[in-house]
Amino acid sequence: MDIFILIQEIKTHLTSGFDKVDEWFDKDEKTLNFQPSNGGWTVHQILEHIYLTNFFLLILIEKGSKKAMRNYLNLDLQSEIENYSFSKENFGRIGEYGAFEWIRPEHMEPQGKLSLSEIRNLITQQYHQCLLYLNTMKNGEGVLCKTTMTVNGLGKINVYEYIYFLSLHAQRHLTQMKNNELETIKN
């Protein structure tokens, strides 16, 4: 496995996803606040949910990043990289809206306490945090720490995979926001 290619692919996915999420902040008020007929969240609420989910995932990513860098002192990084394989197939469904039931914790539900500009600033900061972690672990150190991810039975995943998961989660909600927008147009 070429770890440098993997890191670059995750950066590219992250950048593309965050850029697409950011475009939603410029939508008109009707689109941002439209309540879909299925009783789902408005685009504003979805954006807040993306921020909240990122917030809690970044706590795990930060801890994992620190542990991975500590593990670097005691583990054989080259051996770990040589024995590592990244399976995108295991993660594919994470980015697909409605692909499986996702029961999110209550603390990741939008509360409506943040303005769109606050959410946008926070999500931009989160994007930069992810890039910082990828740059800090630029030589493959992210494979040296695994944490359990229960969503869709992923199991133990490393820090790079957590960042990829975060990016896929946003991608999942891009579809949901597009669905809202299409329904807005029909009404």
UniProtKB/TrEMBL annotation:
Pfam families: DinB_2. InterPro entries: DinB-like, DinB/YfiT-like. Residues 28-177 form the DinB-like domain. This is DinB family protein.
